[in-house]
Amino acid sequence: MYYDSFSNLIANINLGYKILLPSIIVYNTTLTQRVLSLLLKLGYIYSFVVLNSKQVQIFLKYNEYNSPALRSIQRISKPGNRIFLSYKNLKNFTKNSNLNNNYQVGVFSTSKGILTGFEALELKVGGELLFLVN
Questions:
Q1: In 3-state terms, what secondary structure has residue 81?
Q2: What share of the chain has pLDDT > 70, as a percent?
Q3: Average pLDDT, the chain
Q4: What residues are paired with 56 via a beta bridge?
Q5: Distance, CA of 106 to CA of 115 (rounded, Å)
Q6: CA 111 → CA 75, 81, 108, 120, distances in Å?
Q7: Which of 35, 65, 81, 82 has the greatest CB tally within 10 Å of its CB?
């Protein structure tokens, strides 16, 4: 049986925000920590703490009206269907991500690490589109 801890992370964050949980606990991997560091930098989560070698606690962020800081997080590239964008395609993707006031941030796995689409453009690298954050 295959366990996809990354899909579990995305699903748990979505569910945690939908039912207004103050924090959630997910499986600890290097990818999880790198993605959480990026979400923290972007202001979508309040903080995260590594509890032990197997668990990470994520403190979800809400505004003063108890509205989630993150509206949606959608996994794009999946184990059976990987989605890669070259640097050229990434330019078009970042232009179109701001359409209709639906500002989305693409998160990519690149040779330079886990980056947003805009950071990948600055470094002129393409990569695997992991998920979209809105």
A1: strand
A2: 91
A3: 88
A4: 26, 50
A5: 8
A6: 20, 19, 10, 10
A7: 35
**CA-based nearest residue to 104, from 70, 128, 81:** 70
Six-digit token string for 43: 């202001």
For residue 78, what pLDDT band results from cuts at 50, 70 and 90? confident
Note the pLDDT tens digit of each residue in 98-126: 544 457 788 999 999 999 988 998 999 99
**From the CA atom positions of the chain, what is the Rg in Å?**
15
Same fold across 5-60 and 73-133: no
Beta strands at 73-75 and 23-27: parallel, antiparallel or unpaired? unpaired
Mention the CATH class of domain 5-60: alpha beta
Residue ranges per structural domain of the chain: 5-60, 73-133
Q: How far apart are CA 59 and CA 73, in angstroms?
A: 16
- How many angstroms separate the CA atoms of 68 and 83, rounded? 28
Distance CA 33, CA 51 (A): 12
CATH code at 73-133? 3.30.1490.10
Nearest to 10, CA basis, from 69, 72, 92: 72
